Write a sequence for this structure.
């Protein structure tokens, strides 16, 4: 396999929870948003990060890009320590690093400034980074618009003149303006209509193949994750439950949480009757998560060991990592 | 603007129906029209809504009050806005029961408890005293379902009941809706944009596009042999979790209903468009137990799921 472009090692991010007292606020707990996450993404690969709401997937994305400060751990982008470079590096090193990683947000209605034209939105990156001489701006902007499936004349328009799918294309064009090596796409299609989703998924796949960009695709929609990812990480309450090549995750999942998650997704085929593993209860609060294995209160296979001991995140097959004491019993 | 433009379909007793469409297709407005609660300035300008042989459009407002909730229940997409944050779950449910029937408080409370058990809420005695914000999203949607069931309706209209929920919670709610249909013998109209949910939950589907019916068919038939290019294109455009497949996106955008496209409303995005589609609106034709609105249904060989 190729050298990893992104390497995340033992990343932690907790948020303190305060209770307002009479005189001062008192810390009452911590949200374990990201609780020791380790994985890597190789060049030109898309990693799908799945999990339910509140599991920490968006925070993980933000901490990787240093949009949220980390607590501890290490993120390497192309061998360079992201957080250290942004702290100690020279101005040019910092800018270069910022250019090489970008994010596409979930809501294309909130992430584009309504008072800027598409031209302004994309060229803002050029103004800040000065990596492209002004004489080439027009050419580059038109090139980017074409790349994401828009037309030259769209450059003069404002975000409100576009549909949701087109706005998401603009967000992607903006992310591409700095020639990034790595893009985090956080639920990029979940606010779009079904017939438009496939357009954006296809665009992401194309960018990955043609431009060799690595992606982290964050989503709660497992069907779309299967479509775009080569590897998948399943997150639950701040930790990774399973991390493996996409085919392995979807055909031979080894963590009961993954199994339940997959069986919960309705399949668009009435001839296919799924045997469903319905999980009881709700996702517990990430403030003071359950002891032992965090999934044990909802797990149908839980035993005493699961309540007492945190399972290791171990490599059960080459490239297939899983955090479950009894993963072997799910192997076929 | 015509949000719903000449939509006709029938729901048979005990046969769950799916109303499928994207945003702006008119699926919610269709449902609200059945209950005659289309928000102003919208109104139903024509047509007929027959429920157990009675035309709901001819009913007085007072008569409709006896039908809403009592005979037709409604669950909306967002349980946060449909539950009142100032009242406990128990009092909101009791209010519905007492609105339908004059029963003493103690009996209403007993029925509330039964309803909460029916929708499988754990620890129902405690939940009765809880306020909506103290419950999780999935639990709130269960309460909303319980409220819709309070009048023991014959028909339950569920409008995207799981869209705001996590997958594992969605699975719980879908399983609940399935078993409730059997236990209570009620008929379900499920409104959704999710092709997976229709496939799993319904026996018949009405595919809406831009305020019109594109196709009506048994769910299995529609998925196996779609007759309308929009149905077929949707099936090709949605990814599935059980296998990777070549996605074929539908080009273009969802039309604006203020100035809808001429002729067939799907024609600007249709792969099989001919001149006739641009000039003439295709009628909804009945073909062997199903209906389709496409000029070319007969000659096209469309692939299913």
């Amino acid at each position: 396999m190729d050298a990893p472009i992104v390497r995340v090692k033992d990343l932690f991010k907790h948020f303190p929870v305060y209770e307002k007292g009479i005189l001062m606020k008192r810390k009452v707990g911590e949200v374990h948003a990201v609780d020791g996450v380790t994985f890597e993404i190789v060049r030109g690969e898309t990693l799908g990060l799945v999990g339910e709401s509140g599991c920490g997937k968006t925070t993980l994305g933000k901490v990787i890009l240093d949009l949220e400060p980390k607590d501890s751990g290490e993120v390497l982008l192309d061998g360079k320590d992201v957080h250290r470079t942004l702290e100690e590096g020279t101005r040019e090193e910092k800018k270069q690093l910022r250019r090489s990683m970008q994010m596409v947000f979930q809501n294309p209605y909130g992430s584009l400034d309504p008072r800027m034209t598409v031209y302004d939105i994309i060229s803002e990156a050029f103004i800040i980074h000065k990596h492209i001489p002004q004489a080439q701006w027009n050419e580059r902007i038109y090139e980017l618009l074409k790349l994401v499936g828009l037309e030259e004349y769209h450059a003069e328009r404002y975000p409100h003149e576009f549909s949701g799918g087109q706005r998401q294309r603009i967000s992607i064009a903006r992310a591409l303006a700095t020639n990034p090596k790595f893009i985090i796409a956080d639920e990029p299609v979940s606010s779009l209509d079904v017939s438009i989703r496939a357009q954006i998924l296809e665009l992401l796949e194309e960018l990955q193949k043609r431009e060799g960009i690595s992606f982290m695709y964050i989503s709660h929609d497992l069907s779309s994750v299967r479509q775009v990812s080569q590897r998948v990480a399943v997150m639950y309450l701040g930790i990774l439950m399973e991390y493996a090549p996409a085919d392995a995750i979807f055909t031979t999942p080894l963590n009961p949480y993954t199994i339940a998650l997959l069986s919960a997704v309705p399949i668009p085929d009435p001839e296919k009757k799924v045997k469903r593993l319905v999980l009881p209860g709700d996702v517990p609060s990430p403030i003071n998560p359950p002891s032992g294995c965090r999934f044990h209160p909802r797990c149908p296979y839980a035993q005493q060991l699961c309540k007492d001991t945190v399972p290791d995140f171990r490599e059960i097959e080459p490239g297939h990592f899983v955090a479950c004491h009894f993963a072997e019993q799910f192997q076929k | 603007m015509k949000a719903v433009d000449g939509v006709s379909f029938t729901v048979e007793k005990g046969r769950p129906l799916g109303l499928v469409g994207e945003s702006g297709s008119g699926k919610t407005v269709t449902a609200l029209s059945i209950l005659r609660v289309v928000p102003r300035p919208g109104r139903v300008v024509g047509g007929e809504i027959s429920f157990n042989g009675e035309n709901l459009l001819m009913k007085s407002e007072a008569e409709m009050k006896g039908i809403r909730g009592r005979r037709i229940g409604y669950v909306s997409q967002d349980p946060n806005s449909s539950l009142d944050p100032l009242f406990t779950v128990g009092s909101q449910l009791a209010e519905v029961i007492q609105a339908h029937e004059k029963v003493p408080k103690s009996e209403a409370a007993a029925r509330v408890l039964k309803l909460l058990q029916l929708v499988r809420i754990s620890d129902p005695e405690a939940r009765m005293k809880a306020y909506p914000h103290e419950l999780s999203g999935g639990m709130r949607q269960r309460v909303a379902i319980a409220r819709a069931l309070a009048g023991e309706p014959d028909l339950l209209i569920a409008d995207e009941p799981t869209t705001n929920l996590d997958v594992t919670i969605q699975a719980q709610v879908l399983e609940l809706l399935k078993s409730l249909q059997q236990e209570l013998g009620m008929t379900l109209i499920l409104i959704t944009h999710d092709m997976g949910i229709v496939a799993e939950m319904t026996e018949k589907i009405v595919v809406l596009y831009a305020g019109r019916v594109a196709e009506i068919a048994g769910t299995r038939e529609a998925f196996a042999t779609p007759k309308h290019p929009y149905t077929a294109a949707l099936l090709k455009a949605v990814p599935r979790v059980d296998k990777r497949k070549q996605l074929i996106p539908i080009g273009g955008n969802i039309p604006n209903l203020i100035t809808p496209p001429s002729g067939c409303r799907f024609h600007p995005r249709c792969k099989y468009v001919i001149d006739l589609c641009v000039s003439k609106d295709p009628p909804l034709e009945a073909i062997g137990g199903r209906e389709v609105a496409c000029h070319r249904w007969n000659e096209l060989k469309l692939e299913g799921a």
Notes: Chain A has a mean pLDDT of 92. The interface with chain B takes residues 52-53, 163, 165-166, 193-199, 201-202, 220, 222-224, 226-227, 246, 250, 260-272, 274, 276, 278-279, 281-283 of chain A (CB under 8 Å). The two ends of chain A are 26 Å apart (CA to CA). Residues 48 and 232 of chain A are 5 Å apart (CA to CA).
